[in-house]
Amino acid sequence: MAFLFAYNKCLLFLVVLLHASAAIAAAAALDNSTDLASLLAFKAASTTSGGGAASDNIIVANWTTDVPFCTWVGVGCSRRRPRVVSLNLSSFSLQGTISPHLSNLSFLSYLDLSNNSLSGTIPDTLGRLPRLATLRLSQNLLSGPIPPSIFNMSSLVSILLSVNNLSGSLPTLVMLPRIETISITDNWLTGHVLAELARCSTLQEIYLGRNKLIGSVPSSLGNLSELVELNLGPNQLTGAIPTSIGNLTKLQYLYLAFNHLKGEIPKEMGNLVNLQKLHLHVNGIIGYIPISLCNASKMIVLSVGANNLTGPVPATLGKSMPFLRLLQMSENALSGGLDFIASLANCKDLNAFDVMTNQFEGVLPDACGNLSMNLQYFQVFDNHISEKIPAGLGNSSNLISLDLSSNELRGTIPRTLWRLKKLQAMYLGSNRLTGSIPSDIGLMTNLAEIFFADNEFSGQIPDPLGNISRLQKLDLAENKLSSSIPLSLWNLTGLIQLYLSQNRFEGLLPPQMAKLKAIGYIDLRSNRLSGNISSALGELQSITYLDLSNNSFHGQIPQQFGRLFNVEYLNLSHNFLSGVIPKSFSNLSYVYSLDLSFNMLEGEIPEGKVFSNVSITSLMENRALCGAPQLKFPPCPANMITISTSSAKLRLIKFVLPSVASVLVFLACFSLFVKFFMRKKAKASSKEEPPCLNYHRRIPYFELARATDNFSEDNLLGRGRIGKVYKGSLDDGLLVAVKVLNLEVEGASRSFDTVCRTLGQVRHRNLVKIISTCSNLEFKALVLEFMPNLSLDKWLYFQNQCLTLLQRINIMLDVSLGLDYLHHQHPYVIVHCDLKPSNILLDENMVAHISDFGIAKLMLIDNKSTTSTNNVGTVGYMAPEYGLTGGVTIRGDVYSFGILLLELVTGKKPVDTMFSEKLNLRQWVSNAYPTAVMEIVDTNIFRTEFTNLQQHSEGVDILRRCLSSIIDVGLHCTKDLPNERLLMRDVVPRLQEIKNGILLN
Questions:
Q1: Pairing between β-strand 110-112 and β-strand 134-136 as defined by DSSP bridges
Q2: How far apart are CA 124 and CA 103, in angstroms?
Q3: CB 299 within 8 A of CB 272
Q4: Pick the CATH number of 701-785 from 3.40.50.720, 3.30.930.10, 2.60.40.3200, 3.30.200.20
């Protein structure tokens, strides 16, 4: 009986157990279905774009119900049960919004949606996730306020919301007991830095920079004993640095730069014995550098530039900070001597030394020769340093940039400096240096910039200087250099700026000048150059600034000057030029300043745009100019014999009328006598009002900070994969675009070097001009000409205005001319590799300029050469062969250009959702060509100037023929086989013919 009872009891237990197991399984199935539904809802709300990532459309293809969701890409499940615990979709080119249904993933502990294009707001429901420890939503397009629920999650350890468009203030109710990292940089947050953050005792990292936060730095932050990194700049913070910061003994990184902080550096900061990086630059901090700061023996970066600091630098600074790599103290009022440099010999990793624009005086100590072998930047520009350049500087064999300009240095250049074989920029200008320029300078083959202007150098330019093949900028102006300009100088085919003005050079300008294909600026004024102006100057079609004034040139102005299509400033005044002004000057449509005064010119002043902008002073004091009634010159006589008479007739006149020739000689001598006094007067006036030059620019970091209002988001023009572009106004009022690279992005530094190398060698009207660069250990930026009409991409897809057909044709022609220059006219073949609408910028006249040479390739053989690359552009615009071979040729650029043509005509992106693996933009256009062209054309074209034209059949035919011609060029440029594509030198005349046809009709 007992056995039976026990048996029944066991049976009952098994039944109950089976029912329980079934219930658990049913519950699990229900829970699994909830996770599945949440993931499908997320998929529906977010789509993938054609942004160029390798994972494009992978969610659409992979997230299917045919397989368990735990096997989906980016989805991580727990081991014991099929529940979603992590979702990692970083860099998947996602668009759309974040589904609020993600809150149903109740086991989710890790959510990473960073580096996508997600928009909309952050769902408040994410605050319901009970196990979420990591929330990464950085680098998206999210907007709106931060949901308060996010700051009330007991499980949260990391919040990363940087690089979005979030606005509003930080949630005031903070209940984050486990939080270690809060990162919300690069947004639009307003309000104050929360004092309530001090409640989060576990906080180790706070990043709130690049916002619009106001108020002071809360002293309560000094209670965060675990804090390792604190970043509160740039913002608009005011007040003094709280002394409580000194309590953060674990702090390693403190960034308070680009604010409006006042007061002194607290001596309590000397308690930060673990501090490695201190950034206080661009504030209003006053007082001395506290000696207590030397207690920070682990310091790597000390940056206090652009403040109002005074007094001397602690003499033991370097001995106390042996790990120092960057010392940045420029743009203050620091004084005393530079004896502290001796202590920096203890810093074996010192990479950059920058004390520009202070009030240091005395001498550069011999201890400069004991500095780190890793030193790359040594900048003492604009101080009161006197005596000689120490020979020991030649020991810094890894030096890249040496700037001792604008001081009171004397003596000669020590021979030891020629050991600096890696030096790229050598600035010794505006001192009192004497002697000759040694021929050893030719050994420094990596030099790209030489600035020796405004000294007392004498002798001649050493012939070996022509061996520096990488030289781009040479400034020897305002010295006592003499003799002729060496022929070797004209072998520097990469030269883009040449300043030799106000010296004593003599002799002729040889035809070898034509080798300077990349030259943009030539200033040879106020020398003793003579002879005819070589017609070879007309070959320099990249030149924008040419000044040959105050010399002794004679003869006629070469007709070839009419081929200087890009010239903007042209000064030939104060010479002995004769004959007529070439009619070809009418082709110079970009000249804003033309000066031909004080010569012996005669004859009719040509008509044209250039002469509608000049004043009478630009033509005064010539022999017998006539015409130009707007300038009040006398009318030309109908029977006037001009100097354009053939040379044979001129010789005949000389033989028949020798007496006239004698009179002319006498008059010429008299002119020389008169001119001597006129030139002295002109030189005196030129010293009072020197010409305004912006061409040799060395722009320090803090001028860029001022120009962009501390890199304010208000000045943000755009952001890309490797950085941001800001609008800025330099100290002299010049508007620029400042591209600041994010050095944390892989390849950013390499891209910077590529742009410098590429843009440094090119000069063309349809390429974006690089005005300057700014580079140090932790900051790299390009200063480019500002384009008020932004990018073509904006006009096609984000502007209310519509581009007319003529504007589109002009843009196509501009881009083709720029590519033609890169492919066929430059001494080296340059392949852009990433041509697309966002890289086409438009100036105030809607002239197109190609930009973003970040992955451009230089090919040194011919246009059939190829080179390999791991980064070959953007999906949709990338030539098909790149994906197969990785080889780069100019025909890859042609393919991208063809896609651009088709996009301009159709208004369709090559990654439009209507296209797939079976149908792309080219195939779609090809299917409609030539019979159904009007059906695929961008309808905005019909809304512009051709509205009336369409009412007539003849007008429609004209429009159809024009569009068909453009499409035909686009289809020929995008053929699958590279050798079947057109070359850019063939594309240019075709587009010019199309433009002429539309203008004619």
A1: parallel
A2: 9
A3: no
A4: 3.30.200.20
In the chain, the amino acid numbered 146 is I
SS3 604: strand
**Identified catalytic residue from 112, 523, 793, 834:** 834
For residue 403, give the 3-state DSSP assignment.
Answer: strand
Mean pLDDT, range 650-667, rounded to an integer: 44
Q: At what angle do helices 921-928 and 890-906 cross, to 10 degrees?
A: 60
Buried b (16+ CB within 10 A) or exposed e, 910-925: bbeeebeeeebbbebb
Fold of the domain spanning 792-1000: Transferase(Phosphotransferase); domain 1 (1.10.510)
459: left (phi over 0), alpha (psi -120 to 50) or beta: left
DSSP state of 982: P
For the domain with range 10-189, which CATH number is right: 3.20.10.10, 3.40.50.1460, 3.40.630.30, 3.80.10.10? 3.80.10.10
Q: What is the average per-residue pLDDT within 409-431?
A: 94
- The answer to whether 809 and 994 are in contact (CB under 8 A) is yes
Using one digit for the tens of pLDDT, what is the confidence trace for 156-193?
A: 999 999 989 999 999 988 899 999 999 999 899 999 99
pLDDT mean over 235-249: 96
Count helices and strands (H / E) in the chain: 17, 52
Q: Is 879 within 8 Å of 895 (Cβ atoms)?
A: yes
Question: Across the strands, what pairs with 857?
Answer: 831
Active site residue 834: yes
DSSP designation for 560 = G
Task: Give every CB contact of residue 667 below 8 A, 6+ residues apart in sequence.
Answer: none
- Contacts of residue 744, defined as CB under 8 A and 6 or more positions apart, other chains included, come to none
Q: What is the pTM of this model?
A: 0.75
Q: What confidence tens digit (pLDDT) does each residue in 593-643 have? A: 899 999 999 998 888 777 777 777 888 888 788 887 777 788 888 765 444
Mean pLDDT (whole number) for 812-837:
86
Between CA 923 and CA 909 the distance in angstroms is 13
Has residue 338 got a pLDDT over 80?
yes
